[in-house]
Fold this sequence. Notes:
There is one protein chain. By secondary structure, the protein is α/β, with parallel strands linked by helices. The chain has one domain: Alpha-Beta Complex (Spore Coat Polysaccharide Biosynthesis Protein SpsA, Chain A), CATH 3.90.550. The protein has nine helices and ten strands. It has helices at 15-49, 98-104, 115-125, 130-137, 142-156, 221-241, 252-258, 261-275, 302-306; strands at 73-77, 109-113, 159-162, 166-168, 186-193, 207-209, 213-216, 292-294, 297-300, 326-328. The strands form two sheets. Strands 1, 2, 3, 5, 6, 7, 8 and 9 form an eight-stranded mixed β-sheet that branches. A hairpin with a 2-residue loop joins strand 8 (292-294) and strand 9. It starts with 14 loop residues before the first helix and ends in a 9-residue tail after the last strand.
Amino acid sequence: xxxxxxxxxxxxASPAQYARGYARRYRRTGIAAFVFLSVAALLFFLHRSGxxxxxxxxxxxxxxxxVAHIPETIWQIMLPKNPTPDQPTIEAGRLENTASWLALxxxxxxxxxxxxxxxxxxxxxxxxxxxxxxxxxNMPNVGMKSDMLRYLLLSVEGGVYTDTDTIxxxxxxxxxxxxxxxxxxxxxxxxxxxxxxxxxADIPHVLQFCQWTIAAAPGHPVFDKMVNRIIxxxxxxxxxxxxxxxxxxxxxxxxxxxxxxxxxxxxxFEQLQELEPWIKQLTDLSYMKEPTLYGDMLVLPIDGFxxxxxxxxxxxxxxxPPDALAxxxxxxxxxxx
Length: 337
């Protein structure tokens, strides 16, 4: 399956048509999710703050865009491992942490994308890229399909993607320091920094970026690179296993290296090098202490998205450090597929 490198990732003729069709398709799911999660968000907020009441009406000040280029949209994805006609599309229990995102970001638009939503999105936006449709449709692992979908959603729409097993710790509007707000178009966080420690068998890099939470302006070239990387990796997987892509039984490391954080790290690092040629190796980003802007990409130190881990100098003493923006719970719902 050849990569159509000359074709744009996003169909330039589709946004208006998509906006209408997408709104229709998701209205019922969106309203139901909003009602359920708004109640949960209110309870979360009241429990956390100890307040007896909370007004949903935003102030004029809060409506001012605080993340200049990044749309005020929160995306989550829920795809079934083994889809069957009688299997519920949405597992309510997996949304228990979503309340934190709604409570801390009351002016953001929230969208939960299920299997049908993902399929509709892919076909509406990428009719000019049959290689994208073919790869996405035949992904052999629900984690790989979810990975690919998050990059495509952020490429087309932008916003904040976050896994359902993450907890928001600070409002998104506070993620970017004010003096670089107008220059930031992507936010990525470090999830692993080997430093002087031993190598890990399932992490091929000395430093790795997470993709459980990513924020971006629409149309950033890092996603074009990532999607083309995925298409090539999927083709190679099928060739190496000597079966069609949808029959491949990938090992965990193969998922990591084709669509997951190892592949994402390669692509993000390549983009960073284009923006800042002085960056020669991943270790140049090691021991980072504060958010750092490289070109238009803001890189967060380990605690930004990766607190609570027993490595990489991540804060893991039960406290929440002031620079922690979100926490990942590592439930690994894609595994065992």
